[in-house]
Fold this protein.
Amino acid sequence: MERKPPSNNRIPELQAPFRYKGNLLAVEGLPVESIAARVSTPVYIYSSAGILERLRAYQRAFRSVPHLICYAVKANSNLAILRLLARHNAGADIVSGGELRRALLAGFPPGKIIFSGVGKTEEEIKDALRARIRMINVESEEELRLIRKTARKLKVQAPISIRVNPDIAADTHHHIQTGSKTNKFGIDAAQTIRLYRETARARELRIMGIQCHIGSQITQMRPYGKALEILLSLRERLLKEGIPIEVVDIGGGLGASYHEGPSPHPEKLARMILPKFRENDAILFLEPGRSLVAESGILVTRVIYRKNSHGKHFIIVDAAMNDLARPALYDAFHLIQPVRKSPTGRWVTADVVGPICESGDILGKARRLRTPRQNDCLAVMTAGAYGFSMSSQYNSRPRAAEALVEDGKWRLIRKRETQKDLLRGEIELI
Ligand code: LLP
């Protein structure tokens, strides 16, 4: 679904991959209802056209400078999604040995994989060095020491990038703000300089980049501008000391639209970043997760019961906080839409809740919708990022199935877990 690049100053809108066709919610023209009927519920459904449109929007927005879009695997780490992004020239931003394995299996070239995270273990560092990934984003002095020791043992040179904590408080939920001095992430500017000097002297280490990541679900572009200025001025200072840095990595964090209306376009981010960046001979890296996949995924769930108690309406569905943790964890809002619009149902204001034994198990509070019937399907929108990847088996609930629509067809990309899967690793030991 290539669309024309903007011919003037207007920023184009990204298309919503899920739309109504008559009364039926459809994805790339396919009725969601028919997929749910085959796979059963709860099921995550993703649109490959939607994901690729967003990847291409990034690639186009930054095409005037050498760059790499490293998808933050944590947002949605399904192998089929990773493979789709790898095939279209994305890199991968990983935060664990498990994500490294997934990224390699999906076909990301090691030279396009970068490794972030405050608590990398020796095992994980070893795996990353053996795989010869592009760079390790170092988050503490002790980590740098361990990487050096590990590289010496393996007789390799470790490519290093230091994650700077720029002390910028991006305007977002406090759980997903990462670039302020009260957060555990990154290293302050003064220490950064000292650690680069140390790195430059160490035979086992090679300086590759400088990085920061200021938070998630960011909709204001100014904090990115400020963060980039800090990275570039540190780079400049080090260059004067004869320490060159090739990669400048501004992290991820661009928001998605959880309500109706357009999401921030990567072009908006490019307009903040590129004028500051252009004079440099560096390669620009970005680490978007949510903005690539959030709007291209929904969680489809079925109504089990409706009830009215003390005058309050509840719609009890078969998906719960173990399937989608965001509303319970961050009080996050996800639009909930009928999979088949009913022109007749009576309007109610109801909480849409799951079967888990916690009052916080709410997918949507006080939603105004037409009363669905039992067995009707509802779609929890904008669930492609941090949906399945944060799901759990709480209450001994098998995790949901996942399906991907591509070229007008859908296929299962993760089987629904079974009761047997839930017992694996335990049943042998009783
Ligand atoms: N790079 C690093 C180092 C990160 O820590 C993250 C996200 C990203 C990139 C990608 O950020 P994104 O573009 O997706 O905003 N579970 C939360 C979001 C946690 C984000 C953690 N770090 C949620 O559901 O809102």
Q: What stands out?
A: The pocket of LLP is lined by residues 72, 75, 93, 116, 176, 178, 213, 216-217, 251-254, 287-291, 326, 330, 386, 390 (CB under 6 Å). The CA atoms of residues 122 and 146 lie 7 Å apart.
